[in-house]
Request: fold
Amino acid sequence: MRAPVSVLTTSVSLLVSNSHAGVIYSTGFDDYANGTLSGQLAWIGTGGSWAVSASVNTGQVGFNVIASDGAIVPPSATGKMVRMTTSRFGADRTKGWLDLLNSNKWATASAGGNGVLETTLKLYIPSGVTVPCQFGVMVSKDALTTGSGFVINGQTGAVSYLDGGYAAANRYSFGTSVSLAAWHACTFRWNPTTGAASLAIDGVQIGSYTSTIKGGVYAANLFSFTDFSGTSGSSAYAYVDDYSVAAVPPAAPPCAGDFNGDRKRDGADLGFLLGSWGTAAGDLNADGTTDGADLGSLLGGWGDCP
Reply:
C-alpha cells in the first residue's frame, strides 16, 4: 500500500537553501546557442552534454533554446529560455536529460551527507492549451526506471507527483493546482535511499510523499508527455528557465512553533502566533484554533530547534 501524500497548506516556506549543497549544474541558458538543446555543453567530460529524445511534429524542436516566443519571455524579461514541445504520439514523451551517473557527478556531489537530489527550475505553461499534456521533471533511477518527479497539467494546472513512470497509473494528485500563463518557481527533492520526496512551488511546500522506487540516480530530466491516443498534428508548449540540480542534505525534522523555518522559536514566531490568534494559522495542537494552549507550547519549546 502506498503511503499517503502529505499536503502542507501553510504559506511558510519549508525548503530553505543550504550553503553546504553540492551543486551539480546550474544555468539560466543565456550562454546557450539558439536552437536544439541536444548537444549543448553543460560541463566538460563524460555525460557533459544535454541529450534529447523526442518524436515531434514536423518543423518542431523538442527542446528549443529561444529568447522569446511571441509575448512569452524569460522571467527576467531578458536572456534565453527553453521551450519544451509535446510528442506527436499519444502516451509518449519528450525528454531532455543530463547524465549524472556515468559522469560521476552525483557520486561526487552527494558525498558527505548530501544524499538528496534537488532540482529547481522556473516553469511557464500558457493558457488555452488544446493538447492533453503534462510538463515537469523526472529523476531516472537507471537507464530504464523512473524514480520520481512531478508534473503540471497543461490544460488545468493540476499538480501531480510521479512514482515509477509517467503513465496515468504512476501519477498521484497533490490536490492542488497552479495558475497558467505565469512563471512558477519549482523545487523538487528526492532521496534515492529512502524514497522521500517533496515539492515546493513559489516557495511554499505543497506536498511530500515516499516513492516506491529507490536505489540510485542515473539522470535528471526535463520532460513533457501527451495523454491522447494515436497521433496529433497539434503541439503544446511549456517554457523552462533558471534550471539547477544539486545534492543537498536531508531536511531537518519539523520543529513545532518554528513558523518561519529558521530552526528556532523566537520573537518572530511569537509575533506570528499572536497575529494568528483565533484562527487556525498558528495552531500547534491540532484543535483548529490558535489560543493559549498553542502559546504555552511555543514558549515551552523556546530557543533553537533540536
